[in-house]
Design brief:
Radius of gyration: 11 Å
Strand content: under 5%
Largest sheet: none
Mean pLDDT: 74
Distance between the termini: 35 Å
Shape: rod-shaped
Helix content: over 70%
Length: 24
């Protein structure tokens, strides 16, 4: 269960990082 939560958080950070790279 903890792995799923950590993976979900990582996915959110990854999507935010992608949008940041697109804006840069």
């Amino acid at each position: 269960m903890k792995k799923v939560m950590a993976f979900g958080t990582f996915d959110i950070f990854h999507k935010g990082h992608e949008s940041y790279l697109k804006q840069a």
